[in-house]
Specification:
Blueprint (H helix, E strand, L loop, with lengths): L4 H16 L4 H8 L3 H13 L15 H10 L4 E5 L13 H15 L5 E4 L3 H8 L8 E4 L12 H13 L3 E2 L10 H8 L2 H9 L5 E4 L2 E2 L6 H5 L2 H9 L4 E3 L2 E3 L19 H6 L2 E5 L6 H10 L4 E5 H8 L12
Parallel strand pairs: 1-10, 2-3, 2-5, 3-4, 5-9, 9-10
Antiparallel strand pairs: 6-7, 7-8
Helix pairs in contact: 1-3, 2-3, 4-14, 5-6, 6-7, 13-14
């Protein structure tokens, strides 16, 4: 028996709500006084009758093949590789704006109501927050203190507040420098009630978004915050990458130094327990650092550029990832 015009019209209306307005099947059922099964059947009808046409495509700038290869090689749940079709001039944050949009979409897709979103310091992370268009009700926590060379009320604190305003929930900034001159100062600051409350929330993270730094001038906030002797000392210990103040050698192993006692930031154990840990980073100047962090096993996802992805997939770096100790 042919479908009635009224039923086709209802199917089209439900399809519009579901596919174009992102309303859930449960909410549609409640709005229209239908069962969830009826809504599901009408959505199937809309596709079967040609009322809805579904095309699986990727934005032109996304390299689906490289994305899949990167995800498989490093056992990632999410890998988005952007092909910018322009030259990387070797600057510290190339393609930041191009990476921000797909990264923001990934974050918005991952977050659910009552989740806890963690944001680290970094230009790439700030760029992601600026292009977010929606967030479910979820609290937002700052993962790291701010660049010591910038005011405490810098862009990272502002990014946490902006994300929280989108979610309509509480923000938990860290009004403290990332790197302190000694462990005593860091201990005193960590004990301050407001800072301590924020640090406690790092145990409840659902999604963490971080930048990756390479161990060189202008490529890492932590590197640039240290004295030249300290910079050379860490380089001699094999440090090639930094993420959220955590230091990694070329094989992705954590390099443990006294720096860990002097920073106010999320720690490795907290990131290990976080269901989604996403890095947003690109550029040839950071290619070795990106490989190192991918090998660490801390990431569940990455948003990067095509040249960096190819470097991470190069045969010379095909060794299996070590477990962090």
């Amino acid at each position: 028996m042919a479908d009635s015009y009224a039923e086709l019209l209802l199917a089209a209306s439900i399809a519009k709500r579901f596919y174009l307005e992102n309303v859930s099947k449960v909410d549609i059922a409640q709005e229209m006084s239908l069962s969830r099964f009826k809504v599901a059947r009408l959505l199937e009808m809309a596709v079967d009758r040609g009322l809805v046409r579904i095309d699986v495509t990727f934005p032109a700038a996304i390299d689906a093949e490289l994305s899949g290869s990167l995800a498989r090689r490093y056992e990632l749940k999410h890998a988005i590789v952007v092909d910018p079709h322009q030259e990387d001039t070797g600057g510290p944050e190339p393609f930041t704006e191009l990476l921000a949009f797909p990264a923001a979409r990934l974050v918005m897709d991952l977050l659910q109501e009552e989740d806890v979103l963690g944001l680290a310091w970094g230009r790439a992370v700030t760029a992601v927050v600026r292009v977010l268009t929606r967030l479910p009700p979820c609290s937002v926590v700052q993962l790291t203190g701010v660049d010591p060379q910038r005011p405490i009320t810098d862009k990272s604190v502002e990014a946490v507040s902006l994300a929280a305003s989108l979610s309509g929930s509480a923000s938990h900034p860290l009004y403290a420098p990332l790197v302190l001159p000694n462990d005593l100062t860091a201990t005193v600051l960590r004990s301050q009630p407001v800072i301590a409350q924020t640090l406690d929330r790092l145990d409840t993270l659902s999604t963490a978004v971080l930048a990756v730094g390479a161990w060189g001038p202008g490529l890492s906030t932590v590197h640039d915050a240290l004295s030249e002797p300290d910079q050379r000392h860490h380089a001699a210990m094999g440090v090639v990458a930094e993420m959220g103040s955590l230091l990694f050698d070329a094989e992705g192993t954590l390099v443990r130094t006294d720096l860990g006692d002097r920073v106010i930031a999320v720690n490795a154990d907290q990131l290990r327990r976080t269901p989604e840990t996403i890095a947003v980073v690109g550029g040839r100047a950071k290619a070795q650092a990106v490989r190192a962090v991918l090998k660490s096993g801390l990431l569940t996802g990455i948003v990067t550029d095509a040249a960096t992805a190819r470097a991470a997939l190069a045969p010379a770096f095909d060794a299996s990832r070590p477990r962090l100790s």
